[in-house]
Design a protein that fits this description.
731 residues, 29 helices, globular, mainly alpha
Length: 731
Amino acid sequence: MAEPAPPQSPKRAFTPQSIAVWGLVALVGAIGWTALALSRGEEVSAAWMVAAALGSYAIAYRFYARFIVNRVLKTDKTRATPAERLDNGVDFHPTDRRVLFGHHFAAVAGAGPLVGPVLAAQMGYLPGTIWIVVGVIFAGAVQDMVTLFFSMRRNGRSLGQMARDEIGPVGGAAALIAVFAIMIILLAVLALVIVNALAHSPWGVFSIAMTIPIALLMGFYLRVLRPGRVTEVSLIGVALLLLAIVAGGWVAESSFADTFTLEPGTLVVWMVAYGFVASVLPVWMLLAPRDYLSTFMKVGTIVLLALGVVIALPTLQMPAVTDFATSGKGPVFAGSLFPFVFITIACGALSGFHSLISSGTTPKMIQKETQIRMVGYGAMLTESFVAIMAMITACIIDPGLYFAVNSPAGVIGTTVESASQAVAGLGFSISPDQLAAAAKSVEEASLLSRTGGAPTFALGMSEIFSSVVGGASLKAFWYHFAIMFEALFILTTVDAGTRVGRFMLQDMLGNVYKPFRQISWKPGVWFASAVVVGGWGYFLWVGVHDPLGGINQLFPLFGIANQLLAAVALAVCTTLLVKSGRLKWAWITAIPLAWDAAVTLTASWQKIFSDDPRVGFFQQRAVNQEAIDAGKVLPPAKTMDDMHTIFTNATVDGVLSALFAILIIVVIADAARVCWKAIRDPRSVTLHEVPYEKSRLVAPAGLFPTKEEKAELATAGVEMAGPSTETASRP
């Protein structure tokens, strides 16, 4: 069946009112950027950062994303998506766009947007903020949306399989190996963050455990009891979620506290079991409703945090740009602004992990092609705003406190006196009494060397919320609420990521044994899920029992591996734009690809060959070897056995960094070859796009139906009595 030309979206003429509105939005954003960029030596309100980000996001979503959807990709609302054509109620299932937005956002928004900006704040608030906003508009959100589109046109194929199909066996094999290996590392790192947040926390464990039965209830409510009643189930879910959070506090103070106080090893077992179950159950039953439920918590908290900033108007105490941006001698992480701030801040600006979700669960659930702007681009903008709020929380606290919290014990020592002196040596000041008072205000014994970013985010969040509600008396409550919030934020990435890993492995094995290509084939589902959870579960288990082993060994690869993955996704998208006759628009992914490749390969080069042992893996290996030969023990090692372990870790990290970089270079080079061949001889192009099939579903493209979409829904027989009844329909 020949594919008809996609219907053109009606052009909306600009009215004086719309011109005034968008002019005002642009003005607010411009004033925000001006205040951030030009203010030196005076107080700058964090509200300007909120204004700059939101103004930029609004302009990008309204104009740039719409241009890509309509002019470049030419989405077709009459074309059936895989969710409609292959609906089997397990992996392929047409899902209301609001629920799917929640699933997609929850799946991609993990530790990155909360932690990365906090760590990058050591460079000052301005470099990270610019990268977060500019990066998401022109790179991250574009990658997510374009990957989603092309995967959707290929029955929801995984990124690695699309690379093999469209680039060829050499680049495809390199992509498959790199993508799957990086996926296991990313999942184990995210899971480790959750374990660290929930260990010995009965409040967090109880509240998060309760989201599972609540999600099951929501899934059956939408599927069986009240199909299509999204607003109803949303209200029920949010009410139960709030009750679970409050009840978590009760449990923590009751006799049941010991039941929900879990050791790290126990948490690993439960997380592996949950990851396996979530990846094999029908997507409508647990995964999608739980992610949707979590989104209310995530977005709701971030919105309240933004409102708190606007009400309390805290000032940015961190300088716009610190000396560490050029010296590369920062105590939080070593390396200069270029390239390491762009590696440290991944999620929120550009993240390769997102491409796995965009070519994993989401393309198998989306109702209409026209919904990719809301789901792909919109969810990534939302995550970017989370990163902006994380940057604010890190920069409104006293810089002396920031460096005391985020610097390792080897730099600041273990007492408030030594920390105060070390911070003074960094160019900032904070007294021992102030450090002790900061810990006491959040009911912690100490805040020294609470590295990783999460405690700093919680400190800033408690500062903002306590300024608006409750004052100093509730600061400890808000701090521990933020810690629990971060764990909930990240767990949704692990369950969706496990399912995506299962899809990737099935695609890979399908090249050898064809039944694996049937994504919902039960033997394949169970086998692939077991392999994936076994992979990240192993590294996690070793990591929680050995501070220098397991995933702790691979943790330094997290940022670079994630951005190398983005290079694969952008290379595949650029190749598909060229092969599908969109050469003049290939720059929308080719420019981000060139930037990402330059940044990430530079970082890889420095991590491999730098003569600074804090940066270069092999230099660190050499320093440890010299110390071992001399019989010395260097921090953070405590014994000679630790020294040998660090030596091994540096070797493994250096070799893997080189291997990943080589694999990505192979992918990009092979993609360039295919693009050049397609440009020179368009007739030789073979695309693996599935044939056109007319859609019978009617559903809106955005959050709120337009006047035309309401008419289509009414014609299709959907009663528009209220938002709870508006859904997709088959005429």
